[in-house]
Design goal:
Layout lengths: L2 E6 L3 H12 L1 H8 L3 E7 L15 E2 L2 H5 L4 E6 L7 H11 L2 E4 L2 H17 L4 E2 L10 H8 L5 E7 L2 H12 L4 H10 L8 H4 L2 H15 L9 E2 L7 H9 L2 E12 L2 E12 L11 E8 L4 E7 L3 H30 L3
Parallel strand pairs: 1-2, 1-4, 2-3, 4-5, 5-6, 8-10
Antiparallel strand pairs: 7-9, 7-11, 9-10, 11-12
Helix pairs in contact: 1-12, 4-5, 5-10, 7-8
Amino acid sequence: MAIKVAILGYGTVGEGVYKGIQNHQEQLIEKLGDAVEVAGILVRDPLKKRDVQPGTFITTRFEEILAIPGLHAVFEAIVGKEPGYTYLSQCIEKGCHVITANKVLFAKYGNELLKKSKQHGVHIGYEATTAGAVPIIRTLQELLKVNRVTRIQGILNGTSNFILTEMRANRLSFGEALKLAQDNGYAEANPENDVEGKDAACKLKILCQLAFGCTPDWEEVEVEGIAAITSGEVQKAEAEGFRYKHIADIRAEGGKLKASVKPIAVSSAHPLFSVEGVDNAITLETSLAGNLTLQGAGAGKFPTASAMLEDFSAILEKSLRTKIHLLSARVPV
């Protein structure tokens, strides 16, 4: 019997998930024992032409997605806190696993959704909320079984990193580098969330909650963008052996958490010095494993879809193991 899934939102990420499922059926069958069927797709515009298999169920009504018989999991790729939060809450209450790429939603409601998922015996995958294809959530979950994390520093926004790279490497002004980012599809027409640090701050909140189990007072956290950095400042830093990086930072210090999101000129000794272009990277300081750095594609259709499908696979495997364990426990000796 096929594993039925639905996709909420069919923009760049939703399409990436759909194509990832279609193009990786062999691997999914090998891992999960059954094919994965996209049983429904929620869209805003029902008339827009989409590259999907004939007969694929497409609807503008979430109620019709929720009514799909035997729905196992839902991939959520909607922008903003609502209606995503309402949809995910209802999916969890129905008993569906959920996988989300919605960082704004998860930064605000993540703890609440995780508690609800435990109450209803389902799982939430949220790897794609933080750094695209970089498996930082799974890495933290494994490390935290024994290690303590004392600090996280990350380049969590590919757009800002691309702009700073172009300003340094090609001597562009901020405005010229931003336009290039927009022309290449790395920046939105309104790039405010990226270049002012809001996007990176949402991702830092998610990592902070997982790593430390609590958060600082976010009203007191310094969040500074990159728009005020001049080409002259970038070139001066380069001449002195430094590079500007937009770094999200959270650390335990004196029994408190201190956080910031701001541009910093780092030396070649810093683990994020060589992270260029649209890549994301996160460095962790831990009690036993020492310092670890993960780097990779931070955004885009397929890197984000990859993170969501890896979450899905892990969740389904975990669910299958649980069922086998429960069934074996019922067999009389």
